[in-house]
Amino acid sequence: MVTIKSKREIELMREAGRVACLAQKEIEKAIKPGVSTLELDKIAERVIRENGGIPAEKGYPSGEKGVPNFPGSICASINDEVIHGIPSKRVILKDGDIISIDLVANKNGYNGDCARTYIVGSVPESTKRLVDVTKKAFFEGIKFAKKGNRLGDISHAIGNFIENNGYSVVREFQGHGIGSRMHEDPGIPNYGKPGRGIRLEAGMTLAIEPMVIMGRPDILELDDGWTIITEDGSLSAHYENTILITEKEPEILTII
Ligand code: MG
């Protein structure tokens, strides 16, 4: 069921989104060679808690038998890791890496979800372009995030933009509705057909998150039960914001 948020709920979503964004801003400042992904995790947890929130990814159930709940406050996915990388003191950023950080702040029962891909030191132009196209794909998608449009309009715009730039869309994972639960209906694939899917209504809050691979689209899951990597070892980037469908233009809740 797709929930329509009340005025009060929208205020709570704005606040949760603000806290999630603050955590990303602090992480961005800390990105440099020599820093471990566990240090980044600690920064996120500190900022979220200092602002009255809870890092919602921590303890998130895997849904798979024998796989422990997610241990981190962030997902930290380096280079060929697509999503759901587990923060670790043994994973140290080095010059030339890219790292995507996906985090969720829950405050007063509502969630703000955002992901960014950061560049560590200097990288080739081709890597910058991947990161840039991934971010732009989000903005291409939300051009269609308007009352009366259909969900497929967003999905199509994202997928088309990614493929027209010569990259692959991750098909096994998708964006989602968000609110008092981190994952709500609808699922929002990063590919699709215009004119299909549910009709967008003011008061819907959606996490839209292009996941892009430089090479082939195939992915694998590591034995940790969480980390998703590209099968061909090529780089992958991720960019996400929580947005609100309004009477006019969408409002991005996780950019302040
Ligand atoms: Mg996310």
Which geometry do the CA atoms define?
globular
User: Helical residue percent?
Assistant: 25-40%
Name the bound molecules: magnesium ion
Uncertain segments are none
CATH classification class = Alpha Beta
CATH topology descriptor: Creatine Amidinohydrolase
Task: For this entry, give a set of tags.
256 residues, 4 helices, single chain, Creatine Amidinohydrolase, five-stranded antiparallel β-sheet, binds magnesium ion, alpha+beta, globular
Describe this structure in words.
The protein has 256 residues and is an alpha+beta fold. It has one domain (7-252): Creatine Amidinohydrolase (Alpha-Beta Complex), CATH 3.90.230. Helix content is 27%, strand content 24%. It is built from four helices and 15 strands. The chain has helices spanning 7-30, 37-50, 125-142, 151-164; strands spanning 54-55, 74-78, 81-83, 98-107, 110-119, 168-169, 175-177, 184-188, 205-208, 211-213, 219-221, 228-230, 236-238, 241-244, 251-252. It has a five-stranded antiparallel sheet with strand order 8-7-9-14-15, with helices on both faces. The radius of gyration is 17 Å and the shape is globular. The mean pLDDT is 98. The structure holds magnesium ion. Residues 102, 104, 113, 115, 207, 209, 240 line the site of magnesium ion (MG). Residues 102, 104, 113, 115, 207, 209, 240 line the site of magnesium ion.
How would you summarize the topology of this molecule?
Layout: H1 7-30, H2 37-50, E1 54-55, E2 74-78, E3 81-83, E4 98-107, E5 110-119, H3 125-142, H4 151-164, E6 168-169, E7 175-177, E8 184-188, E9 205-208, E10 211-213, E11 219-221, E12 228-230, E13 236-238, E14 241-244, E15 251-252
Antiparallel strand pairs: 1-4, 2-4, 3-12, 4-5, 6-10, 7-8, 7-9, 9-14, 10-13, 11-12, 14-15
Helix pairs in contact: 1-2, 3-4
The structure holds magnesium ion.
